[in-house]
Amino acid sequence: MQANKNIERAIWIFTGVVFTLVLSLHEIQKAALDAPFTKNLPQLNAMINGTCFILLILSLLMIKQKNIVMHKRLNTLAMLLSVVFLLSYVAYHMFNPDTKYLGEHVVLYYFILFSHIILAAVSLPMILFSYYRGLCGEIDKHKKLVRFTYPIWLYVTLSGVLVYVFLAPYY
To answer: Domain residues for 144?
Structure first.
């Protein structure tokens, strides 16, 4: 039981650190070091988001087919890719200014962007707790949480790709 409390506490601490880091990225002065490799990171991030979207769909199909092993593997891969995404996102924003959207359909773009940001923030602890509950074999808790977490994470991955598509001409 104590291990559960420690892991739960770690999930909340990690969530707080990620929130603080992401919020501060847009406020801090950018690193003076020129890092050309970071220019392609938005494209990488979009590919990671798209891949996670596909992995989440496949994960749902696997659990519906009662293929628990593949379901766990797909979710683990989605989690690992999400860590890579986070590192890539931080690296890009450490060295590059925020990209301004200058195109048409401004209302649609900002709706997708803001809903993406808000739901990404809300979903982080939900995703971590869902994954943890599944790994621990707390299947009833996992199912209850995933009922809300899954569609949000699916939307966040898809909307991340859409944000990139909108911004791609301006990077």
So the answer is: 2-170
DSSP state letter for 37: G
pLDDT tens-place string over residues 16-31: 999 999 988 877 777 7
- Residue that is written with structure tokens 């899954």 in the block: 150
What pTM, to 2 d.p., does this model score? Answer: 0.90
Q: For the chain, how many structural domains are there in total?
A: 1
Q: Which two tokens mark 39?
A: 């220019």
- Which pLDDT tens digit goes with each residue over 84-120? 999 999 999 988 888 999 999 999 999 999 999 999 9
Q: Which amino acid is at 46?
A: A
CB atoms within 10 A of CB 123: 21
CA distance 70 to 135: 13
**Which residues have C-beta within 8 Å of that of residue 131, sequence separation ≥ 6?**
75, 79
| CATH code for the domain of 113 | 1.20.120
